[in-house]
Amino acid sequence: MSEVLLQLEGVHTHIGPYHILHGVDCAIPAGGLTVLLGRNGAGKTTTLRTIMGLWQASSGRIRFDGLDISKAPTPDIARAGIAYVPESMAIFTDLTVRENIVLAARSGPVDSGRLDWMLGLFPALKRFWNLPAGNLSGGQKQMLAIARAIAEPRRLLLVDEPTKGLAPVMVRSMIEAFRALKAAGETILLVEQNFYAASALGDHVLVMDDGRIAHSGAMSDLVADPVLQQRLLGLSLDAHQ
């Protein structure tokens, strides 16, 4: 068993009058990629935003490497080593690709070796290096958003639906990039609706339903069990290949 890097214990989150998370319990091991699956509205994005402090947990505890971050402000959580890539990507479209990367590296210029590694993950960014980020395709913007998140070393990446709306060729490129991130030892918590991409990448899987974790285990076990896929997700991997 890998050591637990992030742990949620009985986490509830309210947004205005709405009770979204109903006691989330889960553990994210250090190293590898954990996929958070679930139907629309299950609470997946709320879980990521609660971890990041963008929405405060109403109750429960969130521990990161043993440190209680349940009530910590978002900047402190980021400084602790957690990066968040929202579904909206949150890039600066009027700035160049280079400027987007420079702004993401808050502690100073990006190390040249790290920059070469990042551009190796996402070669398209090198081609558009000095052009406005608004010129990028949807998939390329998503790649830039991820590159911004890893411009400095991070201990945990939270990524929300990186393949949403992408053409199949871009989905395959994104899968290869995440495989390279895994090989580099990054710890990733990934929300993903594309079960094919999720099954290709996940070491561990959490399935959320109605604001709770309904299933936790090895991705390989879920991939091998069409009945479990149908019960938890209402789909099967065969239908998404």
From TrEMBL:
It holds the Pfam family ABC_tran. This is ABC transporter ATP-binding protein. Belongs to the ABC transporter superfamily. Residues 6-235 form the ABC transporter domain. It comes from the Bacteria. GO terms for biological process: L-amino acid transport. InterPro entries: AAA+_ATPase, ABC_transporter-like_ATP-bd, ABC_transporter-like_CS, BCAA_Transport_ATP-bd_LivF, P-loop_NTPase. CDD domains: ABC_TM1139_LivF_branched. Keywords: Amino-acid transport, ATP-binding, Nucleotide-binding, Transport. GO terms for molecular function: ATP binding; ATP hydrolysis activity; branched-chain amino acid transmembrane transporter activity. The keyword tRNA-binding does not apply.
